[in-house]
Amino acid sequence: MESKQEVLPILRYVILGLIIWNFPAFALVYINSSISSLLSYASYGLILAYVILNKKTGNSYEMLIFGGVYFLIGILVSQEYIEGIYSFYVTVIKYFIIIWGGYEVVKNTSQKELWFFLLIGALSILGNIFLFQSPLADYGRYSGFYLDANNGGLVCLMGLALSFTTLKSLQLFGKLSFTGLGLITLSRTFMVTWILINLISIRLSLKNVKMLVIGFGVLVLLVTYNEFLPVKNPRLEQLAVLVKGGQQRSTGALNEDSRTETWARYYDAILSRPIFGNGYRSFYGNGVAATNFGVHNTYLLIWGEGGILPIFVFLAFLGKLFVRGINQFKQKPYGLMMLVALSLFLMTNHNFMTNDYSIFLLMWIAIQLKPTSTTVRENNMFSIEKR
User: DSSP character for 354?
Assistant: First the structure.
């Protein structure tokens, strides 16, 4: 019994490292496909082993139902866009292992532990600059283990949200680190969400307004640094024009190849089959739209591929979490902040169903915001006081 209790935390940390640090996908790009497959299957195998040793104590029923209706409707409606039925079944199995087994992993993960893993993940962005150069053309933007600037920005936003309530000795360090590393990604989604999170944090204390000033100062430093580079970063140049006041020209440049233009290419497909959707993988590149790019929007992908039922289940789940996040804001402000970050991220990314660390983070938030008897009692007392 004692040996099992000693093994469980170590096993959980290994799983968190593989998932939160995105090692399988990272290995695919920087090492080779064999190592990537080995790490991927190892992560799912370890999750199953953890459940066997730890036993089941709960489930994310909303995510199980959502995944069931999404995959079932998606495969029944059309198999035209699926490259191989085997890959579909593998994706389905992996998803349900993450939801069913991963629930136990995230349930036993504390706020401090998650903050630490997110910090290491965010620091990999520095490694992307000095230790490993990305083979993917990303125009001077850095994303660390996450291979995409928006994904790296999401990890920084999640860590930033947790930094408002972590150990007092680490709060300022966390805020500065996640802010600086997130800005290095030059992700527009990060910048917009970062502002929203800091505005929300002012409800906790007016002192938090200083983070807005610090963030703007870091951005000015990046823009100034760009002026001395032999080959200037295009996005920093656009931001520099904004800072100097040339708003019309820079805004047009920043909006080139914008997400809204990408989404618009898929609207007709959604409107033509709004009830049952167009089938699994129809909203990826070379699907229903005349483009090589996917829809880059999780909500549109779910609706466009699976129809009205899965998107209703998913939005209802998020809506319930937002209500809980607002009600528990004073006790757990990071819950609402993390929900805002993840919800906006899903508007720019269409790989949620296969993005294990995003699913982990959503389940962790949901578990944290589960109402307890204490929360219910405090809310009832608050409503009585208002009357």
Answer: G
Distance CA 380, CA 333 (A): 19
- For residue 284, the SS3 value is coil
Burial class of residue 375 (count of CB atoms within 10 Å of its CB; 0-12, 13-18, 19+) = middle
Range with the poorest average pLDDT among 2-16, 137-151, 294-308, 370-384: 370-384
Rounded Cα–Cα distance for residues 73 and 85 (Å): 15
Long-range contacts of 166-171 (CB under 8 A, 24+ apart): 166/111, 166/112, 166/115, 167/112, 170/115
CA distances for 227 relative to 221, 255, 383, angstroms: 10, 22, 55
pTM: 0.88
- CA 88, CA 298: separation in Å to the nearest integer? 18
Query: According to the model, what pLDDT value does residue 244 have?
Result: 55
Domain ranges of the chain: 1-55, 58-386
Rounded alpha-carbon distances, angstroms, from residue 102 to 43, 105, 337, 382:
10, 5, 22, 35
298-312 pLDDT per residue, tens:
999 999 999 999 999
Opening angle at CA 52, ends 47 and 57, nearest 5: 90
